[in-house]
Amino acid sequence: MFLRSRNDIIWIVPLTKLETALTNVYPQDLEKLAADLLAERGYDVDPTGTKGTDGGVDALLCDGDRNGILHVARTRSDRIRGKVTDDALKAADHDRKYDFFVFVTTADPSGSLRRRLEVELQEEYGWKVTIWAREQLRNALMANHQHLAREHLNVEPNVEDKEYQDDVLALRNKRLDSVPHKVRY
Question: CB atoms < 10 A from the CB of 16, how many?
Answer without folding.
Answer: 22
